[in-house]
Specification:
The complex is a heterodimer of chains A (about 130) and B (about 140).
Chain A lengths: L5 E5 L3 H13 L3 E5 L2 H9 L6 E4 L9 H9 L6 E6 L4 H9 L4 E4 L4 H20 L3
Parallel strand pairs in A: 1-2, 1-3, 3-4, 4-5
Helix pairs in contact in A: 2-3
Chain B lengths: L10 E6 L3 H13 L2 E6 L2 H10 L4 E5 L7 H12 L4 E6 L4 H10 L3 E4 L4 H9 L12
Parallel strand pairs in B: 1-2, 1-3, 3-4, 4-5
Helix pairs in contact in B: 1-5, 3-4
The chains are: A alpha/beta (about 130), B alpha/beta (about 140).
Chain lengths: ~130, ~140
C-alpha cells in the first residue's frame, strides 16, 4: 500500500485549519492540525516528521509563522514549507525568501493553486532525496 | 613524485538579459572573479544553455522578451538545478515581486538600478550555494 504524504497545518483560525484539513484529507494526505505556533513547534521538535508544513503568519504574534518556517527548515527531514497569509508585506516576505520558504500563498487561498503547488513540491522533494539514479 | 597541483573547477553562471550591454558588463565582472559566464539574450538560447551546461549560479532579468517571462525561466532553472543560487533582476522589490521570487525558487532579488559590479558581487559572495535547503 502506498504511503500517505503527511502534512502539518498551522492556523489559529479553527475554520481555516479544518477546511484545509478536509481538503487535503480528501486528496489522500495524512493531516496533523495545530492551532498555534507553540503547538506546531512542539509537534515538530518532538520528532513528528511530516512531508510538508502549511503555516499562517499571524497567530499568537504578528509574523510568528516565520518561526514555524524557520524550525521546519532546520529539520533533517526537510519538509516543504508553505506560508499562507493575508498579511504579506515587504518585511515578512523578504524574511520568508531568506528562510528559503518554498511557497507563499495569499489568503483567501486559491485551493487549486495551493494543492497543485504542494503536490509538485512534495514530488520534487522526493526526487531530490532519492537522487537521479 | 609530487602530487599535481589541484585546480579548483571553475564555477559557471547563466546570465539571461535582453540588453547586450548589460550582458557584456556582467560577463566582464564575473570573469574577473573567476566565474565562467554563459550568456543568453532570449528564452530559446537560455533553454539551449540549460540543456548543455551545469550552472552553480544564474542571473535572470524579470523581463526577457515579455513582461515577467524571467520568472517562468527561474522556475525551470530551479527544477533542473536544485542547488543553483539564483538571482533575479526586477524593476522593484515589492511584495508581489518577493512572492514571485519565493514561488519560483529564486534566492535573491536585486533591483534593475543595481550596477553590474554590485550584482556580480552578490553572486560571487555566495561561494557555497545556500539554496540546497529549498525544495523547488
Amino acid at each position: 500500500m502506498a504511503r500517505k504524504n503527511s502534512l502539518l497545518i498551522v492556523d489559529d483560525e479553527v475554520n481555516v485549519t479544518r477546511t484545509l484539513q478536509m481538503v487535503f484529507e480528501q486528496q489522500g494526505y495524512r493531516v496533523f492540525p495545530a492551532y498555534s505556533c507553540a503547538e506546531a513547534l512542539t509537534l515538530l521538535q518532538n520528532g513528528h516528521a511530516v512531508d510538508a508544513v502549511i503555516t499562517d503568519l499571524n497567530m499568537e504574534q504578528a509574523d510568528i509563522g516565520l518561526e514555524v518556517a524557520r524550525v521546519a527548515k532546520g529539520l533533517a527531514s526537510k519538509p516543504v514549507v508553505v506560508i499562507c497569509t493575508g498579511f504579506a508585506d515587504v518585511n515578512n516576505a523578504r524574511q520568508a525568501l531568506l528562510l528559503h520558504v518554498d511557497y507563499l500563498a495569499n489568503k483567501p487561498v486559491d485551493l487549486g493553486e495551493l494543492t497543485g503547488a504542494l503536490r509538485r513540491l512534495i514530488e520534487l522533494r522526493a526526487v531530490n532525496r532519492k537522487g537521479r539514479n | 613524485m609530487p602530487a599535481p597541483p589541484r585546480i579548483a573547477p571553475q564555477k559557471s553562471a547563466l546570465i539571461v538579459h535582453p540588453d547586450v550591454g548589460v550582458l557584456s558588463q556582467l560577463q566582464g565582472e564575473l570573469t574577473k572573479n573567476g566565474v565562467t559566464a554563459i550568456l543568453a539574450r532570449d528564452l530559446p538560447s537560455a533553454l539551449l544553455a540549460i540543456n548543455q551546461h551545469y550552472f552553480e549560479f544564474a542571473l535572470v532579468n524579470a523581463k526577457i522578451s515579455e513582461e515577467g517571462d524571467g520568472w517562468s525561466l527561474a522556475g525551470i532553472l530551479r527544477l533542473v538545478f536544485p542547488k543553483i543560487f539564483m538571482t533575479m533582476i526586477a524593476p522593484q522589490t515589492d511584495v508581489l515581486t518577493l512572492r514571485s521570487a519565493i514561488n519560483s525558487g529564486v534566492d535573491e532579488v536585486l533591483e534593475s538600478s543595481a550596477t553590474p559590479a554590485s550584482i556580480a558581487k552578490t553572486l560571487i559572495q555566495r561561494e557555497a550555494p545556500s539554496s540546497g535547503t529549498r525544495v523547488q
